[in-house]
Amino acid sequence: LEPTCWPTGPKEISDNKIDFGNPSNASALVKKTALFYGASIVGVCRLDHRWIYSDSYESPIKPPYFEPKHKKIDIPDWWKNVVVIGVEEDYNAIRTSPNHESGTETALAYSKMGFIASSLAAYIRGLGYQAIPLGNDTALSIPLAIDAGLGQLGRNGILITPELGPRLRICKVITNLPLESDRPIDFGVDDFCTKCKKCAKLCPSQAIPYDDKTFEGKTVSNNPGSHKWYVDVEKCDLFWLVNSGKKQEAQKRISVSDCSNCIRVCPWNKPNTRIHKIAKWSARNTPMLNKFFTQLDDALGYGKQLSSKDFWDK
Ligand code: SF4
Ligand code: SF4
Questions:
Q1: Which pairing describes strands 81-88 and 168-175: parallel, antiparallel, or unpaired?
Q2: Which residues, at least 6 apart from 186, have a Cβ–Cβ distance to it below 8 Å?
Q3: What is the pLDDT of residues 237-294, one digit of tens each?
Q4: Which of 4, 102, 141, 313 fits a disulfide with 260 by CB distance 3.0 to 4.6 angstroms?
Q5: How far is the CA of 182 from the centre of ligand 2 (A)?
Q6: N- to C-terminal Cα distance for the chain?
Q7: What is the pLDDT of residue 254?
Q8: Which pLDDT belongs to residue 190?
Q9: Distances (CA, A) of 66 to 56, 59, 62, 227, 246
Q10: Which ligand 2 atom is at minimum distance from the Cα of 198?
Q11: How many CB atoms lie within 10 A of CB 150?
């Protein structure tokens, strides 16, 4: 189950199992510890087995090449809880998307995920309980983050949070430590996304839908059956490859990077300054003005690409 590239710390579980008396005490401690290690936001939920991948896949991306290996993922029921961690990405670096600095920021956030989740797992083992740190592997991060009350799913197919919008990466730790779960939240993302469509307009591969939510996926890579906006992840992936110079079409590339445009342009993606907190509060509490807020976001020039020069001069 363990991500192959992450240090997972000492595997021993402490013999001195701490009795918290009440799962809410354990949740409070674990959340505080995750924040101490560098998490930006953190929530807790039960491990819903619908979000666990059926198979793991070992990718032959490096020589010596070998046949891809598939293994069934089987997580016993006693792994009951998940600590879900959001790691903020730098606002100005993401503003350069789809360019070098945003790509570097994405990679940097993945590195932080490894440190935070591995450290937290080692800490929980020190309390006398099992814990495994996970990145994108083993289980879908976004549904778990929604269950843990961190945010809602946006039109762009990613998690939108009240604090950071979509500007974060997600990792998680599964554990048998008894924890109190958080509840899913609704702060108006559905209605806002219905009117906004900014990410759909500014997606370079036109992978994000303009139309209403459906139950049907767009490609074989989608998982149909949920009522949501389905992103054509294959178009998105192809753009990442082209933009990273990893495909024949590389000569058409804009830069040597991946893409974070659907994070960059989202009106929820703002630094947590006082003025932006007021704007987010207004968007949450006056849905009848959502169309106006989107137009205002455009009129004020938010979401435009920041040049590399301006990023470094700032
Ligand atoms: S990452 Fe870029 S290409 Fe992919 S969906 Fe978002 S904006 Fe489109
Ligand atoms: S850019 Fe607009 S439509 Fe897209 S996810 Fe953000 S709020 Fe929703």
A1: antiparallel
A2: 152
A3: 989 888 877 655 555 555 557 899 999 999 999 988 888 888 888 888 888 888 888 8
A4: 102
A5: 25
A6: 42
A7: 52
A8: 96
A9: 16, 9, 9, 38, 20
A10: 1
A11: 28
Q: Are strands 131-134 and 41-46 parallel, antiparallel or unpaired?
A: unpaired
Distance of CA 106 to the CA centre of its chain: 11
Counting Cα atoms < 13 Å in the Cβ hemisphere of 238 gives: 12
Indicate the average pLDDT of the chain.
Answer: 89
According to DSSP, the β-strands at 152-153 and 41-46 are unpaired
* Residue bearing tokens 């495994």: 132
What does the pLDDT look like over 89-98, one tens digit per residue? 999 999 999 9
With 0-12 / 13-18 / 19 or more C-beta atoms within 10 angstroms meaning exposed / middle / buried, residue 26 is buried
Residue 153, H or E segment: strand 152-153
Q: Is the CB of 239 under 6 A from ligand 1?
A: yes
Tokens read off for 131: 């814990």
Q: What is the 3-state secondary structure (H, E, C) of 211-264?
A: CCCECCCCCCCCCCCCCECCCCHHHHHHHHHHHCCCCHHHHHCCCCCCCCHHHH
pTM: 0.91
* 166 CA from centroid of ligand 2 (Å): 9
Classified as helix, coil or strand, 96 is coil
Q: Which of 142, 190, 191, 197 to mutate to test the pocket of ligand 2 (most atoms within 8 A of CB)?
A: 197
- Residue 50 is given by DSSP the state G
What's the pLDDT score for residue 65? Answer: 64
Structure tokens at 35: 């924040």
Which segments of the chain have a pLDDT < 50? 1-5
